[in-house]
Amino acid sequence: MGPVNGLAVLVAAMIALVVSMVWYGPLHGRARLEELGPGGLGHRIAPLRTLAISFALLLLSSAMIGHMFARVGAATLAAKPWLYLMMSGGLAIAFVIPAMWINYLNLRISLRLALIDAGFWLSAYLAIGLTYWGMAH
Predict the structure, then answer these.
(1) What's the longest Cα–Cα distance across the chain?
(2) How far apart are the C-alpha atoms of 117 and 108, rounded to whole Å?
(3) What pLDDT sits at residue 82?
Protein backbone atom coordinates (compact mmCIF):
# COMPACT_ATOMS: atom_id res chain seq x y z
CA MET A 1 0.00 0.00 0.00
CA GLY A 2 1.29 3.42 -0.93
CA PRO A 3 0.74 6.56 1.07
CA VAL A 4 -2.54 8.46 0.95
CA ASN A 5 -2.11 11.74 -0.90
CA GLY A 6 -3.16 14.22 1.78
CA LEU A 7 -3.24 17.17 -0.60
CA ALA A 8 -5.49 15.23 -3.00
CA VAL A 9 -7.82 14.39 -0.09
CA LEU A 10 -8.22 18.09 0.68
CA VAL A 11 -8.52 19.26 -2.94
CA ALA A 12 -11.00 16.50 -3.85
CA ALA A 13 -13.21 17.42 -0.88
CA MET A 14 -13.13 21.09 -1.90
CA ILE A 15 -14.05 20.20 -5.49
CA ALA A 16 -16.90 17.98 -4.28
CA LEU A 17 -18.13 20.91 -2.18
CA VAL A 18 -18.13 23.12 -5.28
CA VAL A 19 -20.09 20.40 -7.10
CA SER A 20 -22.57 20.51 -4.21
CA MET A 21 -22.94 24.28 -4.42
CA VAL A 22 -23.57 24.14 -8.19
CA TRP A 23 -25.82 21.06 -7.98
CA TYR A 24 -28.06 22.45 -5.26
CA GLY A 25 -27.78 26.02 -6.50
CA PRO A 26 -28.22 26.83 -10.18
CA LEU A 27 -28.80 23.25 -11.41
CA HIS A 28 -31.40 21.87 -9.01
CA GLY A 29 -32.00 24.47 -6.32
CA ARG A 30 -35.42 25.47 -7.64
CA ALA A 31 -36.61 21.86 -8.02
CA ARG A 32 -35.45 21.04 -4.50
CA LEU A 33 -37.23 24.12 -3.15
CA GLU A 34 -40.43 23.04 -4.93
CA GLU A 35 -40.19 19.61 -3.30
CA LEU A 36 -39.25 20.64 0.22
CA GLY A 37 -40.60 24.15 0.56
CA PRO A 38 -38.69 27.09 2.04
CA GLY A 39 -38.11 25.39 5.43
CA GLY A 40 -36.82 22.11 4.01
CA LEU A 41 -37.53 18.90 5.94
CA GLY A 42 -37.39 20.71 9.25
CA HIS A 43 -35.63 23.77 10.54
CA ARG A 44 -33.08 25.46 8.37
CA ILE A 45 -29.47 25.24 9.51
CA ALA A 46 -27.35 28.36 9.12
CA PRO A 47 -25.67 28.38 5.68
CA LEU A 48 -22.11 28.64 7.02
CA ARG A 49 -22.73 25.79 9.42
CA THR A 50 -24.18 23.71 6.59
CA LEU A 51 -21.13 24.49 4.47
CA ALA A 52 -18.73 23.50 7.27
CA ILE A 53 -20.53 20.25 8.07
CA SER A 54 -20.82 19.38 4.38
CA PHE A 55 -17.10 19.96 3.88
CA ALA A 56 -16.21 17.84 6.91
CA LEU A 57 -18.32 14.94 5.67
CA LEU A 58 -17.01 15.24 2.10
CA LEU A 59 -13.49 15.31 3.56
CA LEU A 60 -14.23 12.00 5.28
CA SER A 61 -15.49 10.51 2.00
CA SER A 62 -12.48 11.84 0.14
CA ALA A 63 -10.09 10.41 2.72
CA MET A 64 -11.66 6.97 2.48
CA ILE A 65 -11.55 7.04 -1.32
CA GLY A 66 -7.91 8.16 -1.11
CA HIS A 67 -7.19 5.24 1.21
CA MET A 68 -8.86 2.91 -1.29
CA PHE A 69 -6.69 4.25 -4.11
CA ALA A 70 -3.57 3.91 -1.95
CA ARG A 71 -4.45 0.26 -1.30
CA VAL A 72 -4.75 -0.39 -5.04
CA GLY A 73 -1.37 1.26 -5.61
CA ALA A 74 0.03 3.86 -7.95
CA ALA A 75 1.38 1.31 -10.45
CA THR A 76 -2.00 -0.37 -10.94
CA LEU A 77 -3.79 2.96 -11.19
CA ALA A 78 -1.26 4.22 -13.74
CA ALA A 79 -1.80 1.09 -15.84
CA LYS A 80 -5.59 1.18 -15.43
CA PRO A 81 -6.64 4.83 -15.03
CA TRP A 82 -10.33 4.00 -15.52
CA LEU A 83 -10.23 2.56 -12.00
CA TYR A 84 -10.40 6.08 -10.57
CA LEU A 85 -13.89 6.59 -11.97
CA MET A 86 -14.98 2.97 -11.72
CA MET A 87 -14.10 2.73 -8.03
CA SER A 88 -15.32 6.14 -6.90
CA GLY A 89 -18.50 5.98 -9.00
CA GLY A 90 -19.03 2.38 -7.95
CA LEU A 91 -19.02 3.40 -4.29
CA ALA A 92 -21.73 5.95 -4.98
CA ILE A 93 -23.83 3.57 -7.07
CA ALA A 94 -23.46 0.46 -4.88
CA PHE A 95 -23.38 1.93 -1.36
CA VAL A 96 -24.22 5.61 -0.95
CA ILE A 97 -27.23 5.88 -3.26
CA PRO A 98 -28.94 2.64 -2.13
CA ALA A 99 -28.45 3.59 1.54
CA MET A 100 -29.89 7.03 0.86
CA TRP A 101 -32.86 5.58 -1.05
CA ILE A 102 -33.67 3.12 1.74
CA ASN A 103 -33.80 6.06 4.12
CA TYR A 104 -35.87 8.10 1.67
CA LEU A 105 -38.40 5.26 1.32
CA ASN A 106 -38.89 5.25 5.07
CA LEU A 107 -39.27 9.03 5.12
CA ARG A 108 -41.56 8.96 2.06
CA ILE A 109 -39.39 11.41 0.14
CA SER A 110 -40.41 11.83 -3.50
CA LEU A 111 -38.70 10.00 -6.33
CA ARG A 112 -37.84 13.37 -7.88
CA LEU A 113 -35.86 14.46 -4.83
CA ALA A 114 -34.26 11.02 -4.52
CA LEU A 115 -33.06 11.26 -8.13
CA ILE A 116 -31.71 14.78 -7.63
CA ASP A 117 -29.78 13.69 -4.53
CA ALA A 118 -28.57 10.47 -6.16
CA GLY A 119 -27.27 12.50 -9.09
CA PHE A 120 -25.40 14.73 -6.69
CA TRP A 121 -23.69 11.85 -4.89
CA LEU A 122 -22.68 10.20 -8.14
CA SER A 123 -21.36 13.51 -9.50
CA ALA A 124 -19.50 14.31 -6.28
CA TYR A 125 -17.85 10.89 -6.06
CA LEU A 126 -16.88 11.01 -9.74
CA ALA A 127 -15.41 14.48 -9.17
CA ILE A 128 -13.38 13.08 -6.27
CA GLY A 129 -12.11 10.24 -8.49
CA LEU A 130 -11.24 12.69 -11.29
CA THR A 131 -9.38 14.88 -8.83
CA TYR A 132 -7.25 11.96 -7.65
CA TRP A 133 -6.58 10.98 -11.25
CA GLY A 134 -5.65 14.55 -12.18
CA MET A 135 -3.32 14.97 -9.20
CA ALA A 136 -1.61 11.65 -9.97
CA HIS A 137 -0.51 12.98 -13.38
Answers:
(1) 49
(2) 14
(3) 97
